[in-house]
Amino acid sequence: MEAPELLKQKLPHDARTHDARTDGDISLILELPENDKFFKKKKKLLEEMGSHAKPVYIQSSASPVELKSSLNLMHQSSRIINLDELELYFGGEDVTDLLEFNSPRNEMEALNSILTAIAKLGGEHSASTALQELRVATVNVISEVAKNFKEERKVVTESSCEQEKCLQQWGEDEGVKSQLEISYFEGAGRGAVARQDMRIGDIAMEIPLSIVISENLVHASQMHSILGEVEGMSAETMLLLWSMKEKHNPDSKFKLYFDTLPEKFKTGLSFGIEAIMSLDGTLLLEEIVQAKEHLRAQYDELFPALCNDHPDVFPPELYTWEQFLWACELWYSNSMKIMFNDGKLRTCLVPIAGFLNHSSCPHIVHYGKVDFTTNSIKFPLSRPCNAGEQCFLGYGNFSSSHLLTFYGFLPQLDNYYDVIPLDIDVESNEGFADTGPTSDWTSHMIRGTWFSKNLGIFRYGLPPPLLDHMRRSRNPFSQTMNLTPENLEIELEILRDLCSMFQDMTDALGDGQLDDRETTSWDTKLALDFKYLQRRIFSSIVASCQAGCELVESELQRYRL
């Protein structure tokens, strides 16, 4: 999402109004970009809170209390501006819910947008004490938010990092600049710790483009002319096939990088039969099976044909199915999308940077662009990182099923993007009397209700668009949610239907007490952990529906007396 643009407005001094300002005062406005995908929804929310396109004034003599009040107002507006699709879906149309905390992602984006706005004013008001204090206050809020999402992992001191240290030294010889040290972490494998205290905006790592593995390397190889003749051959597949061979090249420029890679990746794509069957009752079982079938079909289209036609370029012993799957897992779990100076987005492997682990509240979020002045990829901090602390990189806003399948892990903290899509027909709103803000969603989903802030009647901790859809399917002409017997009976019917649906889904997962949690198989353990998460989500929906039924029945009793 684009950073909100800062507009500076100077209002004429008018002693007759309450908006009179002195020359030393500062005005800030966080503007909602018109090209925002959800511009209309967000604009309506901002208008409801009375802050759309309105500046926040900071007096040069502002007290700490006044600065805190101004920051709070900007923080609320910035939360709305930085909402993503899921946050809008689960937040609904009630602006009072969305003004407060929505997710760690939204919180960090909102606060960093304010810092960006302050930085843009720095030139004109660099000597302003109020502006400096506002920045300090914003950084302090970021630090407080980060404390609530701290991930504790112990460094495994007995694990050797010799190969990683060799790679890091090679990188520094090639121009890598890093404030991070590679270490092993208990339960997470390799990661990176800060060598020294780093502040917001500091560059944790800078990787020169000369050591980034991109499609340019394939273009310079012998196999490019051959693969270019294959119909439907993508740049990503070319890179995948190139890496299968380069891995075994003793003279490769990237030998030290390939030496640090595991012989076998442990992602969902490598799940054995027992682990896959442990996922029975979840959507993930079918997703993994389909993903592996797709990869196998892709492999069979290429091999053994390429080996038979060009054995010198594609030696059969290097292009087995096992090697192909290894390369797929490498690119799924380690690649990054990088915007190059020509405006093209390319999939790349970035040595050393790939060691950083993911977090729900990462230190590094914005990193996918080549800096044309240095011809490098920079990894700036969005929140402080202290010396000795693990520095996290945001892989993306992915569900746990995606992270398990393609990266091979489940997040340590609750994942706000753990959504489960629902197979519900969404009919056109044409002819319906109610086409409110929550009625234009074309698909529906659920997640754990422990994330919800509103558990009251008509909400129950459930997604407003889903409830709105189910209400309209029962009464297309209802425009209000008043406490009438008719509306309450519909609410009761909806809640009972949802409760029954998710109880069936919970039952389909089987009895969790029968799971062999002590199994020594890494993939079965991971599968059972995921299944436990699914049970937890479904159970929370059932519990919320049951609590909602009690609320509605209590209201109905008033009409039955």
TrEMBL record:
Family annotation (Gene3D superfamilies): Rubisco LSMT, substrate-binding domain, set domain protein methyltransferase, domain 1
A Gene Ontology molecular function term of the record: protein-lysine N-methyltransferase activity
SUPFAM superfamilies: SET domain
GO biological process terms held by the UniProt record: methylation
Record keywords, A-Z: Methyltransferase, S-adenosyl-L-methionine, Transferase
Ranges of residues in domain SET: 178-396
Name of protein: Ribulose-1,5 bisphosphate carboxylase/oxygenase large subunit N-methyltransferase, chloroplastic-like isoform X1
Gene name linked to the record: LOC107831376
